[in-house]
Write a structure and sequence with these properties.
The protein is mainly β. Helices cover about 0% and strands about 45% of the residues. Strands 3, 6, 7, 9, 10, 15, 18 and 24 form an 8-stranded antiparallel beta sheet that branches.
Length: about 800
């Protein structure tokens, strides 16, 4: 926004100690593909865009009025881990300079009145060079399929500055009525360089610039739009968003000086003087993807996953929001993984210039290359406007009663010759369309002999020619150890279609092979795929170790009701697990039995049963120090051996180490831009709704409280710290107002745990008269201010 006289600029608070803007190298160890063809051959499984969807789902206009040459975008074949069809969108190719590419949904299929999700894999890298550019963008726009802005740093969607440094409006050349999420592999951060004093920079004194030979437009800027002095260069590959067709997205600066300009007749650079203009592009929801050896995490020759989730407005005329999360799936397995590399930005529907009753817009990708080039590839595993889906896999073995109740988790041991059941569940969780033509491509652990299988459909209307049986005779042996057995499972004659929240299951029965007594066998987790024409989901079996067949002469059981399985992480309370290990030879004593405990897959010291007895023959009460538990759920397993050489089955339970802390937050916390009155003080309300989620998994009746303090708000862009004439204040429901400062830490929220995992937004019930607000006194000067709130938790754990 532009600062006006007597206007206080946008105030931004940074949350100290909270997640949400940090990055992780979630895919640091994933497969590297040094060429575009190798990346396509090894692409993650996605939707087959060429065959799975209707032929006219995408439109690629080979030429548009605003571009020279032909559209480089195309649908190309990609490798398929599932052995089914797979394809990618290719926007540009390494080695092809000055190219452009656009691909659009033929129909307006992204509904801004509903929740929508786009889930995709992206690959943006050169070939054996660090000089890559310029990137690509995921775009929502209310226009036609011929939308394109310009080459180079615009990536085909942003506005284009005048190449002769003349005054222009970049927004006018951008794709209109749009929102763009850029994947920028070439930071354009050349600010005009300070040089010999010749004139003066308008609005400043004693400053001038000499321009370098390059275009002075520095698109990649982080900082408030209305305060150029507070802006900073973005020096790394990055992900960010904004509205390309909005003039507020660009900040123009005029400079009176001398420098190199381009001769419009010859194209040569010549000396010139006068008024020059350069422009910055404001980046919202910036994810700095850092450089490693000159190649950022966007362009590191790896596939990366990003999920884009849209939430519609909750009130008429309100704003929606868009959350994009990077590196949230493993590219080698296709399975979800934790990521803190995300941002949430507001979505103003007025930016799309929707007609009355219109709720849907077009979506697609744009991209461009300049002097540098790269391979820009996209594989969708969930298409916006289509189905939202999920899949999972479980493994269970029989208990002593012959029922499949023993769940196998990652790292567990399974006795050889055990009866085993593999259950694969696929379901439609939401979206605008059915999950269509779904079939299964299963990968089964090497050392499970499958004997039968069946398919359970959502209702009786689903049948197949095999009477819902899986043809296990078609299982293909592993090509090499650890690769798993392959089995294609047609789920219906033409593939299964799931509507609403329907789900289906594929169940396989068999036995785990036995092993020699001297050598356990490790089984890797295996990934299976459920591939439909418009969405793909993955499921993973657990990794496990096969041990020598258990002798039932030594039996084990746990008494969870008598155990202490929930404690608070970091407290002085220890967990205990109560159970029995009973030999068939009743002449044995507790001294003849040894416990073999494991915590989270890590073997602990063995103990004689007599050392941890609970006073009952063959009974034990095993203590677990709080320091050995990680926050959250912990898997604790036992097996026993006796002096006769018998070994029991492994039994497991879960011990929860509860925590309390901040979960998802709003990131930067912003107050409304405010016009000063010149007299008295005013209270400034928060801009949009703040999200401060407290995640609590402590034991029942544990208490917690959130306190806050701050060193104050300071004017951005000044050499010395200039404090705001005002303060942050907190008003509770009773109307009591407390000033936040460095010495006092008032309680902002408190609660009592109910013993279950819960998440509470402590800012949800703040009104215009309560919560944290900004008090501004009459002596405040215009500008943009920022500061830091320091949050602390006080709970039952010191």
């Amino acid at each position: 926004m532009n600062i006006k006289k007597s206007m206080l600029g946008m105030a931004v608070l940074t949350i100290a100690g909270l997640g949400g803007w940090s990055t992780i190298s979630a895919s640091a160890n994933s497969t590297i593909f040094n060429t575009g063809q190798a990346a396509l051959d090894g692409a993650p499984q996605g939707v087959d865009l060429q065959n799975g969807l209707d032929a006219n789902y995408f439109t690629i206009d080979k030429s548009v009025d605003s571009a020279t040459g032909n559209n480089a975008a195309e649908l190309v074949k990609a490798g398929s881990p599932a052995g089914t069809g797979n394809s990618a969108i290719q926007i540009s190719q390494a080695g092809v300079q000055d190219s452009w590419g656009t691909i659009w949904s033929t129909d307006e299929s992204f509904d801004l009145s509903k929740s929508e999700t786009a889930s995709m894999w992206i690959y943006a890298s050169g070939e054996n060079t660090a000089n890559v550019g310029d990137g690509m963008a995921f775009v929502l726009q209310n226009g036609g399929t011929d939308a394109y802005s310009g080459p180079g740093q615009s990536m085909g969607v942003w506005g284009v500055a005048n190449q002769y440094f003349n005054n222009t409006n970049p927004a006018s050349s951008a794709i209109q009525n749009s929102w763009a999420l850029e994947f920028d592999t070439f930071p354009n951060n050349e600010m005009p360089q300070r040089g010999t004093y010749w004139g003066s920079l308008i609005g400043w004194t004693n400053s001038s610039y000499d321009f370098a030979d390059s275009d002075p437009s520095s698109y990649d800027i982080s900082g408030p739009a209305d305060t150029p002095s507070s802006q900073s260069k973005i020096t790394d590959t990055h992900i960010a968003s904004n509205y390309p067709g909005d003039t507020d997205t660009y900040t123009g600066t005029s400079v009176v000086g001398k420098g190199k300009i381009k001769n419009p007749l010859t194209g040569n650079m010549i000396n010139g003087s006068g008024t020059f203009y350069y422009y910055n592009l404001q980046h919202e929801g910036l994810l700095d993807e850092g450089a490693t050896g000159g190649i950022g995490k966007l362009s590191d020759h790896r596939w990366h996953h990003i999920t884009v989730t849209y939430t519609p407005p909750t009130t008429s005329g309100g704003k929606g929001s868009m959350t994009y999360t990077y590196n949230d799936k493993n590219p080698d397995t296709g399975l979800p993984q934790k990521s803190t590399d995300y941002a949430t930005v507001p979505i103003d529907l007025s930016e799309f210039n929707l007609s009355s009753g219109q709720t849907k817009v077009r979506w697609g990708f744009t991209g461009s290359t300049g002097l540098y080039s790269e391979n820009n590839l996209v594989v969708f595993d969930q298409i916006p406007g289509e189905a939202q889906t999920a899949a999972s896999a479980t493994m269970t073995t029989k208990d002593n009663a012959g029922d499949y109740t023993n769940d196998v988790s990652d790292g567990d041991s399974v006795s050889g010759d055990s009866d085993v059941k593999l259950t694969y569940t696929l379901e439609r969780t939401g979206g605008d369309e059915d999950w269509k033509s779904v079939n299964g491509d299963l990968t089964i652990p090497d050392d499970i002999d499958v004997t039968s299988g069946s398919i359970a459909y959502p209702d009786a209307s689903y049948t197949d020619s095999n009477d819902n049986k899986v043809d296990v005779s078609k299982i293909e042996a592993p090509t090499s150890a650890g690769d798993g057995q392959k089995l294609s499972v047609p789920l219906a004659d033409s593939g299964l279609t799931l509507s609403g929240t329907q789900k289906a299951t594929v169940t396989l029965y068999g036995k785990v092979k036995d092993v020699a007594s001297t050598s356990d066998v490790s089984e890797a987790s295996q990934t299976s795929y459920f591939v439909g024409s418009n969405a793909t989901s993955t499921a993973k079996t657990p990794s496990f170790t096969i041990t020598k067949k258990v002798n039932p002469a030594l039996a084990m059981a746990l008494d969870e009701d008598s155990s202490t399985l929930a404690v608070n992480a970091g407290s002085s309370d220890d967990a205990t697990v109560v159970g029995v290990a009973v030999p068939s030879d009743t002449t044995m004593n507790n001294d003849d039995i040894t416990l073999h405990p494991t915590i989270n897959g890590e073997a602990q010291d063995t103990v004689d049963l007599n050392d941890v007895t609970n006073g009952i023959m063959y009974g034990f009460k095993y203590p677990i120090a709080n320091s050995k538990l990680t926050a959250g759920d912990n898997t604790v397993s036992f097996y026993a051996t006796d002096t006769a050489g018998d070994k029991s089955a492994t039994v497991s339970t879960t011990v929860t180490a509860g925590t309390v802390g901040f979960g998802h937050t709003s990131g930067d916390l912003v107050f409304e831009p405010t016009t000063l009155t010149g007299s008295g003080s005013i209270l400034v309300d928060r801009s949009d709704d703040w999200s401060l989620n407290v995640d609590d998994s402590q034991t029942k009746n544990s208490t917690w409280a959130v306190t806050a303090n701050t060193d104050g708000m300071y004017l951005n862009g000044t050499a010395t710290s200039t404090p705001l004439d005002g303060a942050l204040v907190y008003t509770d429901k009773a109307g009591t107002t407390t000033t936040l400062n460095s010495s006092d830490s008032p309680v902002i929220a408190s609660g009592t745990s109910d013993g279950t995992a819960s998440s509470t937004n402590i800012a949800a019930d703040w009104t215009a008269d309560t919560g944290i607000r900004l008090k501004v006194n009459s002596g405040a000067v215009e500008g943009a201010y920022s500061g830091t709130i320091n949050w602390s938790f006080v709970n039952s754990v010191e």
